[in-house]
Amino acid sequence: MVERIARRLGTAAGDVVLDVGCGVGGPARRLADLVGCRVIGLDVVGDVLRSAAKRPGPRVWYVAGSADALPIGSGTVDQAWSLGVVAHIADLPAMASELSRVLRPGGAVAVTEVFWEGRGRPRFVDTAPKPWEPKTVSAVMSVFETAGFGEIGALPWPGAGLPGAYDPSDAHLRRDLRDGRLVPSLVVARRP
């Protein structure tokens, strides 16, 4: 997953990447090791960040903060990644605005999520980690467009014929994916 996103966005050794909702930091550490870039892992959950900090990487550091009020300086980040997090964000327009603020011109955003396609109420609503609210691909793309992003696109995730098919342990999520109520996708956008 990390390799494919890095290739898609052209992540380079000199880049600073913000991992919004980094969790315990696995993708952040993998990206720093793979590309040699610097990664800022951001999460709102203190216990998760403490766990991430116990497994440091040489070019990875962690910051406590919220996606809708990033504690990051303006124009200091080359890319922002949000892997499986946007359905947990209450104020998506504020997140998009904050990402636009912290990204340098030409900076890119990558968002992966299981998006709702508007057919039937997702069963996963009842068992998902809270807060969780299903988001549609078009709504996320629209929010990024309103925040001033361009070159916005959506791709199947992980991609047809590619290894790494998502096989979640949650039975409700598994059924929603099978039935097409939730569809894994990658949304990418660039700041002009």
Major β-sheet, in short?
A: 7 strands, mixed
Distance between the termini: 26 Å
Mean pLDDT, to the nearest integer, reads 92
Rg computed from alpha carbons, rounded to a whole number of angstroms: 16 Å
Which stretches of 5+ consecutive residues score pLDDT under 50? Answer: none
Count, helices: 6
Q: What is the CATH fold-level name? A: Rossmann fold
Order of neighbouring strands in the sheet with most strands: 3-2-1-4-5-7-6
Structural class: alpha/beta
Strand content: 25-35%
Order of helices and strands: HEHEHEEHEHEHE
CATH superfamily: Vaccinia Virus protein VP39
The tally of strands reads 7
- The CATH class is Alpha Beta
Percent in helix: 25-40%
Estimate the global geometry from the Cα principal axes.
globular
Give an overview of the whole structure.
With 192 residues, the chain is α/β, with parallel strands linked by helices. It has a single domain (2-112, 135-167, 183-190), classed as Rossmann fold. Helices cover 29% and strands 28% of the residues. It is built from six helices and seven strands; from the N terminus they run αβαβαββαβαβαβ. It has a seven-stranded mixed beta sheet. It is globular. The model has no long low-confidence stretch (mean pLDDT 92).
